[in-house]
Structure formats: C-alpha cells, structure tokens
Amino acid sequence: MSTLANPILIVGAGPAGLVAALALLRNGIPVRIIEKETSYRAGQRGPGISPRTLEVFNFLCVPEINAAATRTLPIRAFKPGTMEPLRTITLTAPIEASTACPFTETKMLGQPILERILRAHIRAAGGNIELGSTLTALEQHEDKVIARVSKTFGGETIEETIETTWVVGADGAKGIVRKQFGLSFLGETHEDIRKLIADVRLTCPGIDRDVMSYFGDSLNGIGLRPTDNIAPDGYQIILNGDGSDFQALVHDHAALCEKIQSFVPKKITFHKTRRATLRRANIRMTDTFRKGRCFVVGDAGHVHSPSGGQGLNTSVQDAFNLAWKLALVHNNLALPSLLDTYTTERLPVVAQMLGLSTSLLQGQRTQQATETGANTKAWERGEHMHQLRINYRYSPVVLDEVNASSEDVDPYGVKTDGRVVAGDRAPDATGIQIIGANSNEKTTTLFELFKPTHHTALIFARDVSSASHLVETLSAYDPRILRTFVVLPAGSLAMNTAAGRAGMAEVPTILDRDEHAHHAYQVPNGDVAKAIVVRPDGVVGGVLESAKGVGRYFSGLGIVA
C-alpha cells in the first residue's frame, strides 16, 4: 500500500527533530512537526558543533550554520583567588587541514540561532512547526500510527487526532514517545554533580573576550564563555559544584550574580541575566531506538554527562542516519527491514559516546588541582571527539569486497587504522572536473556531489570501458536511489581518444585533476576498476569490484534494481 500521502509525524522541534524534518523534506516527504512549547527556546546550551556535524549541515545545504558559528575559544585558567593567568587549555585541537576534510575544528553556535536557521530552511521546503502542540497518546497499528495531540491556542485547548505512517520522537529525555512504548532508559543520575548554565551580560576588567575564563577548580568553579550570540558583552556562564544551592540560583538572579562574583577577584558589573538552567550528570540510554513504526532520536533515546560536547552532535547524526532510510522505505524504494539498522548502527556509537563523555567528567573531578587551578589534562579531548572517525564498519548493510574486515567494534575510531573501508566516513576531494553528459566540464568537490536524497557511486578506473561491468550494473538502479560517476586519474589517456570521449558522453565522468580523490580513497592509478558507493548520510556503504557485489550491497538494503 502506498504511504506517500501521509506526512511523517515528528514530535519535538529541537535540533534532532529539525534535522530529521529537513532531511525528509529534502527527499520530498511531507512532515508534521509538533512542539509542546508555546515559544521557541532561548539559552546558549549545547553550542559545540563538531566537524562531522558541520558536514551534515553541508549535505543538507545549510551553509549559514558554519558561517554563523565561531571558533572554540581556549580556556584561560586563573590561579585561585587571583587574576593571575595560570595556564591556557585547548579543549580540542583542530585537525590538520586537507582536501579530504573541509571542516577541521569544532565550532560554537548557540542553539537558538542554530534552530532558527534550520526552521527557515524547513519553511522554505514547505514545512512548518506547530507550537503549543502536546502529544498525549500513541496507538500503533500494522500500517499506521494514531497520535492524539492537545493544541493550545489563545488559552483554548483543542484535541486533534493525527493518522500517520511513522513517528519520530525527538521530544527529549522527558518526552512521551519513549514512555508510550515502555522503552527502557537505563543508566544513572549523579545528583551531586550539577552544572548551572546561564546567559549573562557583564563587564569585568581582566576578563578578555578572546578566551574562556575559568576560576576555581574542576569540582567547584566557574567558566565564562564570551559569545556575541547573546550580546557584545554577553557570556555563557557554566557554574560547577555540588549543586546544593543551584536550584535557588536559577530563580534568584541577584543571588546568582553574587555567586558568580564570589569566584572572580575583580569587581563585575552585571547588566542583565537572561536565563539560567540546571543540569545534572544524567547518563542513560534505551536498548533500542525503534518500536514498530515509532523511533526515538537524540535525547529521547540517550542522555549524557555535560562533558565532551557530544550531545547535540550525536542527536543530529541520529536524525541524519534515520532520515535517509525512512525516506527510502516511505517512498517504497526499500524494504522496511532497512529501518532496523538505525538501531544496529547508532546504538554502539551512542554507547561509546556515553563512555567517553563520562570518562571526561570523571577526569575533571578526580584530577582537580587545589592550588594550581583547573587541571589541563582533565579538560583535553582527543581528536576522535571531532567525530570524523565515527564509523559503521560493524553494520550488516555495508559491504567491502577489497579490504579485510575486523572483528573489533570501535564506532568512534579511537584505534584508527588509517584505512577507508565500508562503514567509514566518505572523504571529500577538491579539484575534480566533471566532463561529459552535459556537465559543462565544471570543477567541483566530491561533497558537492554527495546528497541526502540518493546514493552516489564513484567508479575509479583507467577509462570508461574498463569500468563497463560496474557502469552497466549500477546504471540499472532507479536514479532516485543512485547517481553514478566514473573517476579517471589525471592524465588519463581516455581524454585523448575518440572512444574514450564517447564513453564519457554516456555516463558522467570525473577527471581527478589533482588526484585528491584517488589519494583520499586509497586507489592506486591503474588499479582494477573499483566502485565506492557513498550513502545519503555521507558514509561509505560499499567498496565493490564486481557486479555481484553491487547486487549484494543493494539487496542488503532491501533495494532491487
């Protein structure tokens, strides 16, 4: 039965829900986005955006987020009780710039601005956010879900029943979607580990805006992160402690200002306190992200310690992983079994993320310094926290005919081996020239070819004729599923022959002028023809050499030519 007429229901309009909605809209699938709040959220919570998440926004054609985001400032720790700088701490050093990685550092952008940018793209794509709409009940059937929603308008409450084919629960740790289906939320809550986060406008001599200033130690201290997202004199305040008085400070801004001042020796002039929220070290996750026709993404399926800056990024990548699979199934282009791999792929990533962020939290608490201020090592994050090594090598729906598989499950790539194999992030490459097939022979990048709406096959070969068996097999697939390019090395003889040029006219062909693509995908010039199949989420799904392998890969997704 066709399901195209029914919008997919997305519950929650935070980053995860908005990314899921936009990715589905990019695939031509209508959505309904409901949000229980009656106004959009304020506050600079979760501002860190990893390079991997910046790639997601790039694939979704949302360049404004990278443009608006700012670099992550180093932390200047002060000697306790003084304005004497003690040391400077770099949380995560940028990776070495290369043509394979266009985004090299974690950047900062307050969630209100990030969400506003995403909402604008959703509206431009035909979507809308329904504020004041609270999900009250879900009822699953074999072919549909019945959702009951309570909507508030001008003080009046209206009950609505929505019939939908799929539900994406992006309604946070306290949301109803997970609870409706009795999904476990196992873990632990540390009531004695709390953070108070506030948006404050202030001025103070000795506090510079080119660093984040930290006073105190890791157990009991305060960080002041300057951000123009609030105002030219705005700071995100992160207050660490046992939290015994934090709840009162959330509502008593005068007392909050006194608390901030107690850490800083110089006189602070407070201009405005906009918002204060309390966070506990809550570390939990479900054991599945799917129940029938309902899914959970982001905090609805997992919450973590505030350390590490992985929460928003993991949530966005949850949504992106789910959306392309849901699009294929909703459009009747793949079997529903594909949706099971959302849990299969993301659960190990989330589990390792929780472990890594918890280790950072424990390090910050146990490696505190009393006289020497914030401990450097306790705050540093490894390069893997950029999330560029996150992989699905263990997934049942990736296939590699070339590289030997490993039994190790290392979703974050902490023990990277330097290879690019099926399940890894697909690298970028610059200086590629598209020739033939009405291409106008323009120069572009691989990331410009990768889209969230279809797979992209890159057939590395000496010439088009040597790749004919792969071209023929891949060309049989619906163009809504797959776009194919032949990638030729620089100086290819095919450029100089009539037969070679004729072959290029039949299939889009890439001239790898600077051989960045060959280097990134570790393909020697003159090697046998090889197809790298990149999924809609920018992951290498297949490294294939045979027509049989192509068939095995796509049939594994529930797709038949």
UniProtKB/TrEMBL annotation:
One of its GO terms (molecular function) is oxidoreductase activity, acting on paired donors, with incorporation or reduction of molecular oxygen, NAD(P)H as one donor, and incorporation of one atom of oxygen. Signal peptide: none annotated. SUPFAM superfamilies: FAD/NAD(P)-binding domain. Its cofactor is FAD. Pfam families: FAD_binding_3. It comes from the Eukaryota. The keyword Iron-sulfur does not apply. Keywords: FAD, Flavoprotein, Oxidoreductase. The keyword Flavoprotein applies. This is FAD-binding domain-containing protein.
